Amino acid sequence: MDNINDFRKQAHQMVDWIADYYENIEQYPVKSQVQPGEILDELPKSAPMQAESMEAIMKDFNEIIMKGITHWQSPNFHAYFPANSSYPSILAEMLTSAVGAQCMKWETSPAATELEERVMNWLRDLMNLPKSFQGVIQDSASSATLAAIVSAREKITDFNINKKGFVQSKLRVYCSSEAHSSIEKAVKVAGIGSENLVKIQVDSSGRMIPVQLENAIKADLKKDLTPCCVVGALGTTGTVAIDPIEEIGNICREFNIWFHIDAAYAGSALILPELEYLNKGIEFADSFVFNPHKWLFTNFDCSAYYVKDKAALINTFKILPIYLKTNTDDVVNNYCDWGVQLGRRFRALKLWFVMRSFGVEGLRSKLREHLSLTNDFEDWVMKDSDFEILTPRSLNIVCFRYNPNNLHNKKEINELNKQLMDKINASGEIYLTHTKINDIFALRFVIGQTNVQSKHVEQAWHCIKKHANTYRN
Ligand code: PLP
């Protein structure tokens, strides 16, 4: 298609397709029901030699691709953490792809760089993060955590590993046993080695035990190992447990260790003044990441990464070959120096659209609604003698299980709950996932989808109970 009039016509139709999709989204099975290889089998083995019409492409999209889509934007999606979209975010993404700017340097699109700086400062202030924090948008929390660990590695080695490779003593990174796998990935990629990731024990609520951290650091120092970075979780993936940030921060300060906070999911909650206490000790952090693409209604991908000392980050990543030199290098932010990526999408635009279109109060009221719905759901589970809550609720997640006859055989109950989860997900009515809490298989129910309302949560509870009842003798 190279004719602008054809494009205009197709684009209008596409907007209608999108609006219809959102209007009818609840009619799709939330979790795609296809089998492995099913989509592949329906796709031609080689690329078309001749141009095909948009009608033909869209027909295949509707008939082949859509059945292999899991509907993350369905209000019946309660799995993992959400990857939320919203209408203003979709509109901004249309513009982003239309202008198609590659925003690696200020000069390659000044508005992208300056808007990024502005919206990252808006968010920082809204979340009451320290004013000294400076932000950059990364593609994912995994990339941000990698940037943090590599910066910590460089800072502790006086930027020597960047130059000489690993010649020093072994570096050590610490996180809780419940921390996200992206930390282990970052430690591997950073060349530190997964054997040098020290997993610190958690308490009964899944929070890192600070004294265990301190003991581990001291033990490592005695062995001539070099503590490099501690990653604290402000919301673990399994249960949204919140590590004691202030105590961990104090330990990092005492031992002069980089303190990175992974708030990938729960960070959004910091925009609520009533949850400001979650922020306690944040000033100790050297870096902090959270994902507006999870619980702030901004399309994937958009990860907000903040650093206290931007020089450490830039010295770690900056490379300036002749073809990238510009006249403004000394006076502007060039975000390609703030992480792994050289080429960068214009991600700030969707964040700007979302923040303006919802307004701060609009964003807050959405989160509050989700928290209140989660409270209701937790109540229903607690009052039902066939179910058990497995861990104190944190924000908008409920971890529970079905245990109708108070069975005591752990393996048996775990198996029962796994079967129940698979059955619910196969029904396509809702989608939820699981975690393990002290070897107990837990159903994990998250209420954070952009368009979820009380009726959806009620339906979900009925759905869970209906399928659970089929296991009654
Ligand atoms: N950290 C936590 C606590 C998470 O829950 C997740 C993903 O769910 C991540 C990091 C990784 O996020 P991303 O997919 O943006 O890399």
By secondary-structure content and strand pairing, the structural class works out as alpha/beta
Roughly what fraction of the amino acids lie in strands? 5-15%
- Tally of contiguous helical segments: 15
- Ligands present: pyridoxal-5'-phosphate
Radius of gyration from the alpha-carbon trace, in angstroms? 24 Å
- Summed up, the domain count is 2
For the termini, the CA-CA separation is: 61 Å
Query: Which residues sit in consecutive blocks of at least 5 with pLDDT less than 50?
Result: none
Description:
With 473 residues, the protein is α/β, with parallel strands linked by helices. It has two domains: 160 residues, Aspartate Aminotransferase, domain 1 (Alpha-Beta Complex), CATH 3.90.1150.170; 245 residues, Type I PLP-dependent aspartate aminotransferase-like (Major domain) (Aspartate Aminotransferase, domain 2), CATH 3.40.640. Helix content is 43%, strand content 12%. The chain has 15 helices and eleven strands. Helix 6 packs across helix 12, helix 9 runs parallel beside helix 10 and helix 13 packs across helix 15. It is globular and about 60 Å long. The termini are far apart. The site of pyridoxal-5'-phosphate has 14 residues, from helix 6.
Give the arrangement of secondary structure elements.
Blueprint: H1 4-24, H2 38-42, H3 54-65, H4 87-99, H5 110-126, E1 134-138, H6 141-156, H7 161-164, E2 171-176, H8 181-189, E3 197-200, H9 210-222, E4 226-233, H10 245-255, E5 258-262, E6 287-290, H11 292-295, E7 303-307, H12 310-317, H13 348-383, E8 387-389, E9 397-402, H14 410-427, E10 433-437, E11 440-446, H15 454-469
Parallel strand pairs: 2-3, 2-4, 4-5, 5-6
Antiparallel strand pairs: 1-7, 6-7, 8-9, 9-11, 10-11
Helix pairs in contact: 4-13, 5-13, 6-8, 6-12, 9-10, 13-15
The structure holds pyridoxal-5'-phosphate.
The site of pyridoxal-5'-phosphate has 14 residues, from helix 6.
